[in-house]
Amino acid sequence: MTDDEGRRDRVRNSRAYGRARGKAREYLHNPGELDNLVARARRKAAGISRGPFTNLWDSLMTALRLLRAYARGQYRDVPWQSLVLIVAAIVYFVMPLDLVPDFLAGFGFLDDAVLLGWTLKTVEDVLADFEAWESGHGDKSDGDTGPPSQR
User: Which of 8, 24, 38, 108 is the most buried (most CB within 10 A)?
Assistant: First the structure.
């Protein structure tokens, strides 16, 4: 097992991620709250260094756009398990106190990046399908979370 796999497994098996999975299901049954979660994640993402998120930034922005479209009833062609994984990772990302608290300088976002990286890799086909759908629709007014060609 590599160091990255070990970190990923520690995060996925943590109580914080377990709480995030439970909250994910709640968010998915409340579109208004899901939309608020996306807004919180966008604000947090805008205020942090992209350092640990550099390689997954575009996928993270795509996932946030997907969740916003899902919450608004615009896009529903997403497997339920993929939705739960994405929302749980976003909940974990916005939680200030998770496995490694975000206020720990230099380390606080590493667990978030590991979990987001694993999640976004796991659902990459779902994100690609969403981007294909999105490219055929005109409303991409989510500011900096728009498709790369729209930024």
Answer: 38
